[in-house]
Write a structure and sequence with these properties.
Radius of gyration: 15 Å
Order of helices and strands: HEEEHEE
Oligomer: single chain
Strand content: 35-45%
Distance between the termini: 39 Å
Shape: globular
CATH architecture: 3-Layer(aba) Sandwich
Helix content: 25-40%
Number of domains: 1
């Protein structure tokens, strides 16, 4: 029986995205935050914005579907992330002084077949 490689691949992609954000001055406030509507991949903040970040990971030349990870974040996923962000706010999870803005970012991660990072693209205010 074949094993499903999507979960470990997604976890590697999210770890790479979180590391990237921290290297660029963000505080990662939550990862894999579960809501009724689904799971927020990363909630982060910098001095300017609270950021809800959707991460999509693909294996280079290894999967059918959209050509790039970012192309996989369509209108339904954007709507779902906004709904999950509303629930995050409603739960009052944020501690401390909240940044003045809110933003929805996307990070596309491309791994090789062994799981090594090949590319990472961060789009601020993606939707």
């Amino acid at each position: 029986m074949a094993t499903d490689t999507r979960i470990p691949r997604g976890m590697r992609g999210e770890a790479a995205a979180a590391a990237y954000l921290m290297q660029h001055g963000y505080r990662v406030l939550a990862r894999n935050f579960r809501t009724r509507a689904g799971e927020l991949d990363i909630v982060a903040a910098d001095a300017r914005c609270l950021v809800f970040c959707e991460v999509k990971t693909r294996v280079a030349c290894g999967s059918a579907g959209p050509a790039t990870p970012l192309e996989a974040i369509g209108p339904n996923k954007r709507r779902q992330v906004r709904q999950m962000a509303r629930e995050w706010f409603a739960r009052g999870v944020f501690e401390g002084e909240r940044p003045p803005g809110t933003r929805f970012d996307a990070i596309g991660v491309v791994l090789d077949r062994s799981g090594r990072l090949l590319a990472l693209e961060h789009v601020e205010d993606a939707f």
